[in-house]
Specification:
It is elongated and about 90 Å long. The protein has helices spanning 12-17, 19-32, 37-65, 80-95, 122-132, 142-169, 191-201, and strands at 72-76, 100-108, 179-182. The longest helix is centred in the N-terminal third of the chain and has 29 residues, at 37-65. The chain has seven helices and three strands; from the N terminus they run αααβαβααβα. The N and C termini lie far apart (69 Å). By secondary structure, it is mainly alpha-helical.
Length: 211
């Protein structure tokens, strides 16, 4: 400490002893509005105690985070940007020796698979829809829209699962198998929605996977 508690008043004494200290104290007075040396001494004493307390708390928190009894659950989604952030977070946890226990992937689209060929042309799909869905003649124009929407969904789901496969390949062996929560039609804002959400998190819901 460069200020003694016994010094309470006067800039002159410090000017005679150390001009640098005087300059520093003047700047502190300008920034904080503290005008007496006794108040400045008290200010630094309080700050020192606070920093010591912060250091102790930080050490305790760091010890708790790195403890084998502590595990983290990483929640992400299949979007490319979000998965990239999840990979960075995972790398940061590894650098800090923090234990990642499980991964939850939210808003996943599941690719629909059939007994037919994996890839189907737009024309073939429209013909199948025409045989399956009986629409009035004035609504027949909806069939191409349905086909395009289905093919776009398939492309979206296929891309998601490719990214998820790459992401999961980089996870440590001790991480539990990822839990996939599908893109639900509505948000789980009530008890029924939470029950549905819980069924996927704990493995009792319909299994979600790539086609």
């Amino acid at each position: 400490r460069f200020i003694r508690p016994s010094v309470t008043t006067g800039w002159a004494a410090f000017s005679l002893v150390n001009r640098t200290t005087t300059f520093l104290l003047q700047k502190i007075e300008e920034a904080t509005g503290i005008s007496t040396l006794g108040e400045i001494a008290e200010f630094f004493t309080i700050m020192e105690r606070m920093l010591e307390d912060f250091s102790t708390r930080f050490a305790r928190v760091s010890e708790l985070l790195a403890s084998p009894e502590t595990a983290f659950v990483l929640v992400t989604s299949p979007e490319e940007a979000v998965l990239a952030e999840a990979e960075e977070l995972h790398a940061g946890l590894e650098r800090l020796s923090v234990n990642l226990k499980a991964v939850v992937v939210n808003r996943v689209h599941e690719e629909w698979s059939s007994k037919g060929p994996h890839q189907i042309s737009r024309h073939t799909l429209i013909q199948r829809l025409r045989k399956t869905i009986h629409l009035p003649s004035n609504n027949a124009a909806h069939l191409p829209w349905l086909a395009d929407n289905f093919l776009a969904y398939q492309t979206l789901a296929r891309g998601e699962w490719r990214r998820l496969e790459h992401f999961c390949h980089g996870l440590p062996a001790n991480v539990l198998p990822p839990q996939y929560v599908p893109a639900l039609p509505t948000l789980p804002v009530d008890l029924g929605g939470l029950v549905t959400f819980q069924s996927y998190l704990f493995g009792t819901g319909q299994e979600t996977g790539s086609g």
